Amino acid sequence: MNKKTHSHNSDKRTLLIRAVIFSALWLLLTKGVWSSWAIGIFVVPVSVWMSMRLFHNAAAEPVHSVTGQLHYGRLLRLLPYFLLNSLKGGIQTARLAFAHRIEMRPGTVSYPLRLPSGHTQLWFIHLISLLPGTLSAQLNGDSLLVHMLEVNESNYRDVIDCEQKIAYLFDLEIDKQVVPVLKEQL
């Protein structure tokens, strides 16, 4: 089997898998109402076509990214860390919602990113929002604006720890000696 035939078979398999996934998503979104297929018969194929068009090269060719390769085993090891912090964040938000009066120092800090740009930074940006009291606000080149309910060293240390966990997840080395400093922003 030559490379072109293998690629063609791979494309067919990818097309079939995506068609099944988008059909299942359509069923979930419409709660299994079969009459929704009057629209779904158009939406699903267009979605499959768009995904094949947008992500064709990513599926067909091996990616050698300089931004690291996700290690699923490490993801499983880090899952409790992220779930626990998500739970802490939810509890903190509920506590703030029901409290009559709490003294806080909310604000934003500029966090200099040490992770390479690309999917590793995206993971980091999204996972910061799982940390208690933090939310990614804006990406400005090599720095991230982070909103904190309480601007303090502890919350800032949590952001640094999260970045190190993402570096571990993608098997990347980030300079641990160059830890961003919060004191300049207080």
E-strand count: 3
Task: Show unreliable segments.
Answer: 57-66
The largest sheet is: 3 strands, antiparallel
* SS element count, helices: 5
Strand line-up in the sheet with most strands: 1-3-2
**First-to-last CA distance:** 64 Å
The CATH architecture category of the largest domain equals 2-Layer Sandwich
Rg from Cα: 22 Å
Structural class, judged by helices and strands? Answer: mainly alpha
The total tally of domains equals 2
Percent of residues in beta strands? 5-15%
Order of helices and strands: HHHEHEEH
CATH class descriptor name of the largest domain: Alpha Beta
Question: Could you give the topology of this structure?
Answer:
Elements: H1 3-29, H2 37-60, H3 72-98, E1 107-112, H4 119-128, E2 134-140, E3 143-148, H5 153-169
Antiparallel strand pairs: 1-3, 2-3
Helix pairs in contact: 1-2, 4-5
Q: Could you characterize what this model shows?
A:
By secondary structure, the chain is mainly α. The chain folds into 2 domains: 7-59, no CATH class; 72-185, Alpha-Beta Plaits, CATH 3.30.70. It has helices at residues 3-29, 37-60, 72-98, 119-128, 153-169; strands at 107-112, 134-140, 143-148. It has a 3-stranded antiparallel β-sheet, with helices on one face. A hairpin with a 2-residue loop joins strand 2 (134-140) and strand 3 (143-148). The radius of gyration is 22 Å and the shape is extended. The protein starts with a helix and ends in a 17-residue tail after the last helix.
